[in-house]
Amino acid sequence: MLITARRSTATLTGAALLLTGAVSAVGLGAGAASAAPRTTALAVIADLSAQRVEVADQVAAAKYGTGSPIDDPAREAIVIADAEQQATALGIDPAAVGRIFRDQIEASKVVQRALFAEWDADPSLVPTTKPSLATIRAELNTIDAELVQAIATAQPGIHAPSCGGLLTAATVHARHAQGLDTLHFAALLRSLPSVCAD
């Protein structure tokens, strides 16, 4: 992660509240398994989603102080449309992929809003370098293409009754493997509720 500034107490408290709600949304319980094989397709989805919420730090740094809004409906529509087009090419349900990507986008905004609030409260934490938003978007495009492919590969597991438990294990594994803090774990949980089919 490029930005490693300490999290304020207020931010951590807010993230903990988000975490509680997100756990309920995804269906991750306290008794969930703590690890999952990284070779499973659901584990790949969790890992890529974790990478995506980490990149949100760079998005926030690129936008902060520029007037660029966190909510960008036009850009979000492009991301979702691209994912749906890739899904169609791979022969999977584009609407389901669209739902997953809406959650991915909302997860990114969880991180961005928290960082904006933190930097507003303590300007000494504002990053001293501003990344290129175009470069970040290229990185996100790569992650997104891999994520659509992982969703396609995971189709049998996504539609299996065991999906929730396996995704729980994969999510916890991704958190520990990538060293996510409370905020980013809350965002990771927010990114995943649409993965398993009803």
Automatic annotation (TrEMBL):
Any single GO BP term: chorismate metabolic process
GO molecular function: chorismate mutase activity
SUPFAM superfamilies found in the cross-reference section: Chorismate mutase II
Protein name (record): chorismate mutase
Record-linked Pfam families: CM_2 (PF01817)
Superkingdom, taxonomy of origin: Bacteria
Entries under PROSITE patterns matching the protein: CHORISMATE_MUT_2
Natural source organism: Streptacidiphilus jiangxiensis
The keyword Signal is annotated on this UniProt entry: yes
Keyword terms of this UniProt record: Isomerase, Signal
Pathway noted in the entry: Metabolic intermediate biosynthesis; prephenate biosynthesis; prephenate from chorismate: step 1/1
Range of residues in the leader sequence: 1-35
EC number(s) on file: 5.4.99.5
UniProt domain Chorismate mutase: residue ranges: 10-116
